[in-house]
């Protein structure tokens, strides 16, 4: 795996390879099962979980329905508190802004807090082109960066690596990035964490520029919130002279009070803790404490296009907890890289095609990377109905229709390669509209049932390789109903009509 | 058109389905969740705080106001602390009994200087029992954020019962959003290797919380 998402194959092809990787499968099964059981216990501690979940969804919906209002309010509050706000319509613009801001400091190195938004826009690569080295400081991001790899999980980007692989990466790569791995490093997680502490210490103490994302931005007060565990976040948010935060516009929440909901929902859903070790909040700049220059880059990059879809917009409620990944049977087997974006798993399957559009092969394949079992919806702390959006996006891929891309309304053509599906659906639609034809068809199918093949011919073959074809009964339900209850049903219908008159 | 206007115009077009009359306070948020989980006496709340702090590997001690200086002196000595960084507004008598060298935090002290300090002693703004959290708001007895971050040993004094609340919803109204806040729940930790929890990464690896009665 090299460090880019460009040219990633469609999900089925990538998954065909990754599901055969037995080490990956073992690593993922171990990790996802550990965390999902812990999460269930952490959630069970709160009797009002369902009500917190409903409140979390409602707060985000309220924010989304008036996003323009809250963004302007946020901008005012951050500016009044001494911050500078920048707006980026897409990834390129965000990268240009951040590159310029770093250049203005005269620095060529920055330390980074783990941030999904900067992964999404490819900030590290853009900075590297400008001669600026970005050091990832989250342990898992460090493992990914040192291994020239890609993240495969929202919370634990190196979930696909086990301890002995991590040890090997540290011993091989740390020296070329800074302090080498200690002599005799074992593969115990405690020793590996200690190696990361030593490796990054000097970087934290000398860094002049920090780059972060944010979990929440409070519109009323202009406060940003970063939730973390290791303390690398605190280091990057506190020690540098300049802080640049790149945050998706949907991370806004209206009020300070709203944090009482999310600071309960997020840690329990994410790391399965009552509270994560460190949460930092800051509002603009504070004299003598922390960075004296603060820039907030508000990122669109497909979010407003997602907002324009009244079914799909619920994906923007996401607080990036990754609970949906940990329960997903498809994610557990295919792994995060198969999703071809920093957002893997069920949430990635609905977010990536909306942020990037469904024109690409990978993006068009993602809504199908699901068995629609619904486990993701059940654990989602902001009640995103992921199966609903998956089905909606499948419809968009097959049927095409009106969408918004780059802020412009356009009509999407039906995707190629779904002609058979479309034809079958059209035929089914017609048959259900014509009861006579439906009845005749079903009777014909029933009479010829002995002749039906066990497997489908032609392109349907792959599908029936792993599935039983449904058996056609000797008599259709409609015929059975007519035969056994027909009189009754007719009488009832007559009575119903009579009383209605 | 500036990018600001571009993004805001896109947002407004995307929200064409939202009725004109609907204000930013709509739709209302159902806040029927619990303000506190279960009912506890003040003493039970403090017990829960101690239990949850310890569950996430903070070391918890209890004493009264008279016993605090001796306890702090003992805890610093046990860690072999020779130097202690002190926030500007820390009550003088707290550290009256220690032999360690007391270093006032000055605006000039660099991260490297702090890295050479053994311990830090602070108060806190509020503590949350249900989550085992202490919150620092950079007040006079807590100091700048960096002094509780770089040294490897943090001693945090919580005045009970005044500074203890039951839950997160009870804590937020007591905190000022315009102050930089640090919520601390146990020493730094990571679950990044096989989702196994390991305590002690970049923040102080030892967190000791002292619950001081009146």
Automatic annotation (TrEMBL), chain A:
The keyword Nucleus does not apply. One of its GO terms (biological process) is lactate metabolic process. Residues 315-384 form the 4Fe-4S ferredoxin-type domain. Residues 71-297 form the LUD domain. GO terms for molecular function: 4 iron, 4 sulfur cluster binding; metal ion binding. Residues 393-483 form the Lactate utilization protein B C-terminal domain. Keywords: 4Fe-4S, Electron transport, Iron, Iron-sulfur, Metal-binding, Repeat, Transport. It comes from the Bacteria. Pfam families: Fer4_8, LUD_dom, LutB_C. The keyword Iron applies. InterPro entries: 4Fe4S_Fe-S-bd, 4Fe4S_Fe_S_CS, FTHF_cligase-like_sf, Helical_ferredxn, LUD_dom, LutB/LldF, LutB_C, NagB/RpiA_transferase-like. Residues 480-501 are annotated as: Disordered. PANTHER family: LACTATE UTILIZATION PROTEIN B (PTHR47153:SF2). This is Lactate utilization protein. It comes from Streptomyces piniterrae.
TrEMBL record, chain B:
InterPro entries: FTHF_cligase-like_sf, LUD_dom, NagB/RpiA_transferase-like. It comes from the Bacteria. Pfam families: LUD_dom. Residues 94-212 form the LUD domain. This is Lactate utilization protein C. It comes from Streptomyces piniterrae.
């Amino acid at each position: 795996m090299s460090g880019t998402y460009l040219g990633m194959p469609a999900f089925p092809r990538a998954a065909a390879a990754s599901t055969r990787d037995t080490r990956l499968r073992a690593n993922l099964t171990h990790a996802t099962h550990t965390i999902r059981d812990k999460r269930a216990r952490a959630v069970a501690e709160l009797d009002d979980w369902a009500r917190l979940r409903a409140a979390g969804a409602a707060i985000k919906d309220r924010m989304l329905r008036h996003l323009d209002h809250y963004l302007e309010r946020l901008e005012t509050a951050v500016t009044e508190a001494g911050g500078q706000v920048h707006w980026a319509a897409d990834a390129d613009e965000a990268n240009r802004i951040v590159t310029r801001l770093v250049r203005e400091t005269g620095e060529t190195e920055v330390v980074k807090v783990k941030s999904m938004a900067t992964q999404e826009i490819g900030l590290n690569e853009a900075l590297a082109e400008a001669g600026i080295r970005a050091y990832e400081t989250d342990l898992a991001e460090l493992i990914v960066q040192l291994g020239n790899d890609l993240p495969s999980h929202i919370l634990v980007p190196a979930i696909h690596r086990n301890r002995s692989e991590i040890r090997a990466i540290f011993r091989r790569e740390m020296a070329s990035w800074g302090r080498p791995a200690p002599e005799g490093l074992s593969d115990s997680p405690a020793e590996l964490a200690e190696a990361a502490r030593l490796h990054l210490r000097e970087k934290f103490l000398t860094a002049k520029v920090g780059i972060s994302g944010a979990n929440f931005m409070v519109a009323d007060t202009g406060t940003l919130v970063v939730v973390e565990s290791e303390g690398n976040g605190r280091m990057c948010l506190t020690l540098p002279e300049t802080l640049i935060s790149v945050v998706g516009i949907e991370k806004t929440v209206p009020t300070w009070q709203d944090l009482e909901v999310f600071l309960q929902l997020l840690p329990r859903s994410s790391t399965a803790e009552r509270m994560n070790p460190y949460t930092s909040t800051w509002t603009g700049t504070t004299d003598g404490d922390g960075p004296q220059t603060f820039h907030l880059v508000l990122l669109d990059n497909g979010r407003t296009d997602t907002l324009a879809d009244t079914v799909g917009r619920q994906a923007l409620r996401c607080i990036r907890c990754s609970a949906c990944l940990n329960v997903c049977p498809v994610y557990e087997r295919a792994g995060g890289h198969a999703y071809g974006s920093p957002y893997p798993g069920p949430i990635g399957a609905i977010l990536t095609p909306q942020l990037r559009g469904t024109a690409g092969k990978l993006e068009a394949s993602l809504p199908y990377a699901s068995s629609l079992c619904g486990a993701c919806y059940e654990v989602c702390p902001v009640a995103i109905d992921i199966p609903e959006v998956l089905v909606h996006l499948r419809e968009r891929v097959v049927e095409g229709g009106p969408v918004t891309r780059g802020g412009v309304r356009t009509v999407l053509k039906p995707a190629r390669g779904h002609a058979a599906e479309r034809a079958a659906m059209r035929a089914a639609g017609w048959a259900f509209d014509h009861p006579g034809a439906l009845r005749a068809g079903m009777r014909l199918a029933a009479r010829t049932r002995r002749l039906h093949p066990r497997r489908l011919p032609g392109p349907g073959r792959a599908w029936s390789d792993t599935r039983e074809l449904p058996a056609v009964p000797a008599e259709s339900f409609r015929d059975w109903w007519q035969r056994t209850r027909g009189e009754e049903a007719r009488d009832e219908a007559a009575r119903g009509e009579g009383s209605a008159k | 058109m500036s990018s600001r206007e571009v993004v805001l115009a896109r947002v407004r077009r995307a929200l064409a389905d939202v009725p004109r009359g609907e204000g930013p306070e709509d739709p209302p948020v159902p806040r029927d969740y619990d303000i506190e989980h279960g009912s506890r006496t003040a003493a039970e709340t403090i017990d829960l705080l101690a239990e949850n702090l310890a569950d996430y590997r903070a070391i918890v001690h209890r004493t009264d106001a008279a016993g605090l200086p001796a306890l702090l002196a003992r805890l610093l000595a046990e860690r072999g602390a020779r130097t202690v960084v002190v926030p500007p507004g820390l009550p003088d008598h707290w550290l009256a009994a220690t032999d360690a060298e007391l270093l006032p935090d000055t605006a000039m002290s660099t991260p490297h200087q702090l890295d050479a300090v053994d311990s830090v002693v602070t108060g806190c703004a509020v503590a949350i029992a249900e989550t085992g959290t202490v919150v620092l708001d950079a007040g006079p007895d807590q100091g700048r954020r960096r002094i509780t971050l770089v040294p490897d040993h943090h001693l945090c004094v919580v005045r009970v019962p005044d500074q203890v609340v039951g839950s997160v919803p009870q804590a937020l109204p007591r905190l000022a959003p315009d102050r930089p806040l640090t919520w601390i729940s146990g020493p730094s930790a990571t679950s990044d290797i096989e989702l196994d929890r390991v305590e002690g990464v970049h923040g102080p690896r030892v967190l000791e919380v002292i619950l001081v009665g009146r």
